[in-house]
């Protein structure tokens, strides 16, 4: 990857998916080891855009894009890029926890490691423990790693999904409203993790919670009806937005 930390950028990207919101003409850069928030009303294209960043649109009916998504200077849509391998470099956590129901807690975390072939059990166990520790879940599950992941609470399941995502050591983590289905305590735990994990990963988060965006992110991008209206540091966006639509949204006049 070279000496410079990886960065992600999109160059005039346009995307269209059957049931998803079309987004068009979006050029953005995401610096490494920062948290980047995507905000805007429901249906404005935030999640559609997020899915283009690891080619997840390819598993959606009617999906196509034009433009480029560059990860450390390499177009992830190039024919030479394997989408499955790419999703190890750009992991994703969804709005609702998605543990694999037939797998144990340990095997859920280890699932992404199987793409490397059969690793020694001791190495897998080490990675599983490290990932669960990074997700602040190890102390809660270390004595029941062979138990079903479905026995965990909703907040624990979401942290398990985060551990599964970071186990292969991605460069970028995509979070699509990761606290939307959690209670306040679960939300706080995820937010604390996001802040600590940016030391190791670049994080891009979709959120409808303006306070959450203000608390967590270094930069904020405001989307409206499939277009990028404004992008800047979070402090600038929330204190001195340059577009009237941005100010109207963050002050609650619509959305």
Summarize the helices and strands and which ones pair or pack.
Layout: E1 8-16, E2 23-30, E3 35-39, H1 46-52, E4 64-71, E5 74-75, H2 83-89, E6 90-93, H3 105-110, H4 121-134, H5 138-141, H6 154-166, E7 172-176, H7 184-197, E8 202-206, H8 210-216, E9 219-224, E10 227-233, H9 234-239, H10 244-250
Helix pairs in contact: 4-6, 6-7
Keywords, separated by commas or semicolons:
globular, alpha/beta, 255 residues, Rossmann fold, 10 helices
Explain what you see.
The longest helix has 14 residues, at 121-134. The model has no long low-confidence stretch (mean pLDDT 91). The strands form 2 sheets. This protein has a 6-stranded mixed β-sheet, with helices on both faces. A 4-stranded antiparallel β-sheet has the order 2-1-4-5, with helices on one face. The radius of gyration is 18 Å and the shape is globular. It has helices at residues 46-52, 83-89, 105-110, 121-134, 138-141, 154-166, 184-197, 210-216, 234-239, 244-250; strands at 8-16, 23-30, 35-39, 64-71, 74-75, 90-93, 172-176, 202-206, 219-224, 227-233. It is an alpha/beta fold and 255 residues long. Helix 7 links the parallel strand 7 (172-176) and strand 8. The chain has a domain at 8-99 and 170-250: P-loop containing nucleotide triphosphate hydrolases (Rossmann fold), CATH 3.40.50.300.
């Amino acid at each position: 990857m070279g000496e410079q930390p990886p960065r992600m950028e999109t160059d005039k990207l346009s995307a269209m998916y059957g049931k998803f919101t079309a987004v068009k003409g979006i050029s953005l850069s995401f610096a490494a080891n920062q948290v980047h928030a995507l905000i805007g009303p429901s249906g404005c294209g935030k999640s559609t855009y997020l899915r283009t960043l690891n080619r997840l649109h390819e598993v959606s009916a009617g999906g196509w894009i034009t433009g480029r998504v560059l990860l450390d200077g390499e177009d992830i849509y190039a024919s030479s890029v394997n989408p499955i391998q790419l999703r190890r470099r750009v992991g994703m956590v969804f709005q609702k926890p998605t543990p694999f129901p037939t797998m144990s807690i340990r095997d859920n975390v280890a699932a992404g490691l199987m793409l490397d072939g059969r690793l020694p059990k001791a190495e897998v166990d080490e990675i599983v423990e490290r990932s669960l520790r990074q997700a602040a879940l190890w102390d809660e599950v270390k004595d029941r790693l062979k138990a079903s992941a479905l026995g965990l609470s909703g907040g624990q399941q979401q942290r398990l999904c985060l551990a599964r995502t970071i186990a292969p050591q991605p460069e970028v983590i995509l979070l699509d409203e990761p606290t939307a289905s959690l209670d306040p305590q679960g939300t706080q735990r995820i937010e604390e993790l996001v802040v600590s994990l940016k030391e190791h990963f670049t994080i891009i988060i979709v959120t409808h919670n303006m306070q959450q965006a203000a608390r967590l992110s270094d930069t904020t991008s405001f989307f409206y009806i499939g277009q990028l209206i404004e992008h800047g540091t979070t402090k600038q966006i929330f204190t001195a937005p340059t577009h009237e639509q941005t100010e109207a949204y963050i002050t609650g006049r619509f959305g």
